[in-house]
Write a structure and sequence with these properties.
Elements: H1 2-37, H2 49-64, H3 73-110, H4 118-156, H5 161-166, E1 170-171, E2 186-187, H6 190-222, H7 225-236, H8 243-264, H9 274-284, H10 286-299, H11 302-310, H12 315-326, H13 328-343, H14 347-353, H15 370-378, H16 387-417
Antiparallel strand pairs: 1-2
Helix pairs in contact: 1-3, 1-4, 2-3, 4-16, 6-9, 6-10, 6-13, 8-9, 8-14, 9-14, 10-13, 11-12, 13-16, 15-16
Amino acid sequence: MPSFHGWYVALWAVLPALAVFVIWQMVSPMLVTEAVLQSPAAAALPADPMARNAVLEEARALATGELAGAFNPLSNSIAPAFAAAIGRYAMLGSLLALIVAFAGGAFGLLRIRPDLRARTKVERLVMAVLLIASLIAILTTAGIVLSLLFETLRFFSYVSPSEFLFGLQWSPQTAIRADQAGSSGAFGAIPLFWGTIFIGAIIAMLVAVPLGLMSAIYLTQYAHRRARQWLKPMLEILAGIPTVVYGYFAALTVAPAVRDFGVSLGIPSSSESALAAGLVMGVMIIPFVSSMADDSLAAVPQSMRDGSLAVGATPSETIRRVLVPAALPGIVGGVLLAVSRAIGETMIVVMAAGLAANLTANPFASVTTVTAQIVGLLTGDQEFDSPKTLAAFALGLTLFAITFLLNVIALQVVRRYREAYE
């Protein structure tokens, strides 16, 4: 097949040249630096390695246009040498890649014969690329888990796992000296886990699941085609609004209204509350539930709906007993996606729920979540040898394990209640 012979030659021309170009991009900075150090302008460089490296990096930034002016006057005299070396080695690398591309293309062209199985070779290469892509995703996941696990084990060398998993007090502010107040710290994460579940998995889901599922049912079963064309994009706009905008809306509009409502009921209320954050978060994740449920309901065969109506079932009975059970895997998938999105949300919690680690069932009180505390622990200059900083990795690993457990439970629910149709 001529097309596969063409692809065979093109791959021989492109892939080796691309590999040479990538390797050259990694090697050329060292060659450029070495060339600059051998130039006459480098004679004025300081002898101290740290000072010399600072001047070289600043000169490199000047040569590439990353900096408009230098802090060290010596960098101005070295920048032309950097610019000349960068241009010279860039031209050399391009010329080398072109030579390799020509050589590879000529080699592939000379191998073209009537008995060459070019299709098999091209398809094997495509399969290898797909395998590498799959391995990259798997190895990235494994790397994330291992990095979290390694830092978590370091944290547990300072703090007992039982204290972290079952403790009821969270105060990671450790003092520098042992005689200062709060030098021991408190790393009981139960208030954080409860705040995450309370806001993301209870309040937000109580808003998102009914509204998202009912909107999907209306759009797929009741809405006119023209109404659907307008309503569905308007609903999905909610997913494109930045979370910081939701945070402003929750802090400036919803939180004061929730506080006034709680005060009118005689309930102790805070200006930052779990209810305010959960309500806004639930509105934010409605499109995740609605879109997945919409697609799942639309994928149910029309013959099933017609058959149910033909035997005398009402439209509501058809939806409740036929369409929803058949679309249950997609609906559960949308709910899981929404839960994951809610658990990982930070801005709304920081701006509307606060950072107080309170173990309370009062929705009008201020609480915090795991993600908000991770941001607080890793913000600014931190020392990765202190329990305070390492606690962020322990929180991340625990949150990962909880999310994984929720996914396993959801799969079991789907297998138990899914209805299969021929």
